[in-house]
């Protein structure tokens, strides 16, 4: 369905230079970037000086729409009523699990069992839809291989994952979800050729979208130095202010830092030297 927005035959063949997790996060970054360029004239004019044309702007939107599964004609979309609720729920649960699941595996194995991490996570990462089903299934296959291994290091890696929550019972639960999800996408208990092709097409589009974004976001960093401009483009993050002992005033404005110290008798003295108590200069 993405062919109606982007002609895949005209896309160059590229290898991804970032992780799958980064690829999947790219559309959200591109939304902020394109929205800023479409609504803030000073940003658009500044980047136009670097060669950013209307055609490039349209291409960014087209790639974003294609990566998001947009179909201008609505063809190829499956009505919700045609999808088995059990299958739909299984796919949704796998989608919801895979981001945190891959994060658990990466964190747990990356530090304590780096060799096993390389084997288990090679070429894998969070995804959506059919790609998520295939990714989680491959992950489970590799973890099962570790669990059956007689090598102490492999068994130790599985033991670590058990402690982190990826228990044998959890792996069996996920395996059952994958089975249900796959049965819903193909009669022969495997993703159909069309499903696999759609996942491959989306991957190509994500890689191309990433290349487009890296190109123009780097040009934007060269062009714009003001932090507010970079924030609008999604190229900077707002700083989180650390908590202090400064309390807000009634009107919402922060009060200035306290310059008052308290004496042993309960009186207070400002840094300027004045004192307050029941009366200034009160004796005890």
TrEMBL record:
Region annotation Disordered: where it falls in the sequence: 241-284
Bias type Low complexity, positions: 266-284
Name under which the protein is recorded: Uncharacterized protein
């Amino acid at each position: 369905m993405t062919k109606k927005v982007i002609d895949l035959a005209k896309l160059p063949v590229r290898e991804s230079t970032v992780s799958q997790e980064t690829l999947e996060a790219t559309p959200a970054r591109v939304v902020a970037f394109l929205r800023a360029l479409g609504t803030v004239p000073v940003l658009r004019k500044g980047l136009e000086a670097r060669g950013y044309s209307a055609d490039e702007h349209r291409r960014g939107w087209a790639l974003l729409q294609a990566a998001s599964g947009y179909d201008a004609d609505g063809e190829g979309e499956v009505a919700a009523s045609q999808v088995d609720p059990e299958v739909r729920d299984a796919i949704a649960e796998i989608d919801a699990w895979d981001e945190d699941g891959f994060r658990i595996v990466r964190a747990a194995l990356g530090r304590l069992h780096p060799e096993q991490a390389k084997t288990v996570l090679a070429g894998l990462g969070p995804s959506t839809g059919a790609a998520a089903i295939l990714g989680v299934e491959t992950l489970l296959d590799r973890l099962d291989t570790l669990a059956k291994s007689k090598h102490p290091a492999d068994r130790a890696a599985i033991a670590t994952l058990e402690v982190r929550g990826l228990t044998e019972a959890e792996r069996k639960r996920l395996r059952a979800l994958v089975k249900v999800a796959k049965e819903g996408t193909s009669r022969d208990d495997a993703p159909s050729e069309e499903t696999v092709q759609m996942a491959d097409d989306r991957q190509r589009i994500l890689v191309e979208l990433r290349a487009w974004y890296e190109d123009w976001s780097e040009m934007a960093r060269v062009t714009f130095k003001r932090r507010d401009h970079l924030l609008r483009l999604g190229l900077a993050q707002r700083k989180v202010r650390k908590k202090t002992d400064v309390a807000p005033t009634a009107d919402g404005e922060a009060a200035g830092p306290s310059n008052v110290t308290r004496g042993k008798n309960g009186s207070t003295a400002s840094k300027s030297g004045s004192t307050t108590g029941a009366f200034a200069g009160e004796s005890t």
